[in-house]
Amino acid sequence: MSRSDDRRRLSALRRPLQHVARHARPLTAATGVETPRRRRLLPWMERRDPAAEDTRRGVPMPLRVVLGIIASVVATVMAVLLLATPANAQSTSDPGEMATRAYPGREFIIAFESDIDVQRDGDLLVTERIAVNALGREIKRGVVRDFPTLYRSRDGLNVRVGFDVLGVDRDGKPEPYALEKQSNGVRIRIGDPDRWLAPGTHVYEIRYRTTRQLGFYQDHDELYWNVTGNGWTMPIAHAVARIHLPEDAPVLRTAFYTGPQGATDKNARVVESKPGEVTFENTVPLRMREGLTIAVSWPKGIVQAPSRLQGIYYQLRDNLAALVAVAGFILLAAYYIVVHGRTRRRAHAPAHIVPLYEPPEGMSAPAVRYMARKGNDERGFVIGVIELIALRALRIDRDDGKRGTGRETRFVLLQPDAQGQRGMARDTLLGTLLHKMFGAHTSFYRSSAGSARLRDARATLSSSLDNLYSGYIADHGKRARRGLWLWLLYLAACIYTLVLQGGEVGGTLASLPFLAVGLGVLAITWAMVRSNFSWGPVVFCLLFGVPFLLGGIGVLAADNAVTPVRALSALLPALMLPVVVRAFRFLRGYTEEGHEIMDRIAGFKQYLTLAEGPRLEALATVDEKLRLYERYLPYAVALDVGKRWAAAFAGLAATVAGAAAVQAMQDMYGGHDFYRDAPGRALSGIGSDVTPPPISSSSGSPGTSGSWSGSSDSSSSGSFDSGSSGDGGGGGGGSGW
């Protein structure tokens, strides 16, 4: 392709493109091949004309001397001007020539010309003419033009603008194109996927309409427009923007910015400014990821501004998903607050709680735990075993097993003393538990047959507590199930509105299960911590749940970097999920009889918390104090005040007699120290002793066998004083494909 062919191809463009295309390098010549030039002879090598020589002889000598002097002066002046011209031309040469010299043999945009017609209703009709130097490297079939339609306002809300493609041409003829949705806009893929472009200069023309791009302020209206976009993967030699205002509106102020995103360079100029029209162009070629941004303002009243009602409508429409997420979260939280308040409501509440210095009549420590927790939990059986030890009805030993395979846990049946018998008579549930553990035996080991005894005893205790005390608990499971259905409806509404608003939401939706699992595991961990559970499962839950939570947050942040308010559609439903799950526990209440029992339990808990009273003051010896501490320790653990109860008896082991008594008590519990250690830690040790070992299983899954072998295979104010490249409406970028 010759240089004249390039000129004919670009003849349809306006003046700013013509003087750039002249400098485009011919694409048909191979690199390093010089075009043959005509040899130019020096003056003294040229052939002289005799006739001309004769005419010169007729000029007098003085006149010839004067003419020679004048000619020398003129030649000297012209030489000086010629020497100065290249330096001056270097600074004022057009960007097309500069880019051609700067990017030899590379693909680049020769010219990017944009005509923006501002309509009276506020719409913009934009025509972009993009001349590219295609070499078949990146630009193989055509170009892609990205246009953002989703912006973030200064107050953090979403702003969605309209965008409709009116037509696409290449070299003056219609060109096929396809629209592809992006996370924050639209991509126009121009070209035929089954046809490759011929190398050379090609001119693309894109015509589109866009809405809501203008800024309407108190004393002026404004267009703040990213002409080229800052996402182009190739340099732009020359960029021109012509803004056409309706009714020949006067131009109040202009501004321009060049460079990468956020830059405030001024490598551009206003070529022409007159009523109704202003033209901008760059003065230095734009490199990759650089763009031209302009701002123009005009008096108010020329372009129709949206009404206040329209502005409210646009804000609600653009942020519908976030609005549904926030409103649904508030309504669902209000539902649980109201329902939880109703579960705690009483018809006749006492004026104050009366302290009790003994446990409620007829209630053992497991029964108190059941009522306080509104049901069975993992600690009820352990607390029952501790109370049996405190009543001297059994003892836990750690000795060598029958086969000498190491130290094993052994449970030994004892005959309780008078105080222990009175405690056993307080609640027949303890006798049932003791009988279920031992039966006709006086001892058993935790391993072998003892594991079945422990499992049966645990199941018997749970069923007995349900039979005796479930009638005092008002189960509001219907309200909890209703909350679950409301949460599912809330989640569906968030997903629907998120998809309805358009854009790529795959990452946001993919983060939901990660957030749900992470927050759910952390909620379980928090419940374990509140129950003074052992730290082993807590650490495991943290190691399991935190990566899920961080992964969900990372995916959510990456997918919503431009519009973070959209992340609320996934974050808020995930935050509500632990409440929905825990509601099946905390929405349980008490009947009137249950409230009366809880009043007595609260009075006894007050005594355990303060650890004072006439009975405690009447104790004189260390043995008496230690026996009282041990007797009520199961109740303190059941009510989660074990540390406070233990603190009231600190210092009992300071004497020799006290140390011996503490050691004797420790031996009763299989070496677990409920006095020096925190009760929660010793409780965890007892819990491991009374937990049956897991049932052994085969190495293969059901249905498999190892005996067979086989094989397997928007606009914003402040653009004049604090604007920057890449801000404002428009923007985007593009590349070849």
Largest sheet, strands/sense/barrel: 8 strands, mixed
The number of E-state strands comes to: 24
**SS class:** alpha+beta
Shape: elongated
Number of domains: 3
> How much strand content do the residues show?
15-25%
Keywords: Membrane, Transmembrane, Transmembrane helix
Biased composition (Gly residues): 725-737
Domain DUF2207: 111-298
Region (Disordered): 685-737
Overview of the molecule:
This protein is α+β, with helices and mostly antiparallel strands and 737 residues long. The protein folds into 3 domains: 99-308, tricorn interacting facor f3 domain (Immunoglobulin-like, Sandwich); 319-340 and 477-586, no CATH class; 349-475 and 589-690. The chain contains 23 helices and 24 strands. It has an 8-stranded mixed β-sheet with strand order 7-6-10-2-1-13-16-15. Strands 11, 12, 14, 17 and 23 form a 5-stranded mixed β-sheet that branches. A 4-stranded antiparallel β-sheet has the order 8-9-3-24, with no helix packed on it. α7 packs parallel to α16 (568-586) and α13 (477-500) packs antiparallel against α16 (568-586). Mean pLDDT is 76; it is low at 12-59, 79-93 and 695-717.
Quick overview of this protein structure:
This protein is α+β, with helices and mostly antiparallel strands.
List descriptors:
737 residues, alpha+beta, Immunoglobulin-like, 3 domains, eight-stranded mixed β-sheet, five-stranded mixed β-sheet, 44% helix, 19% strand
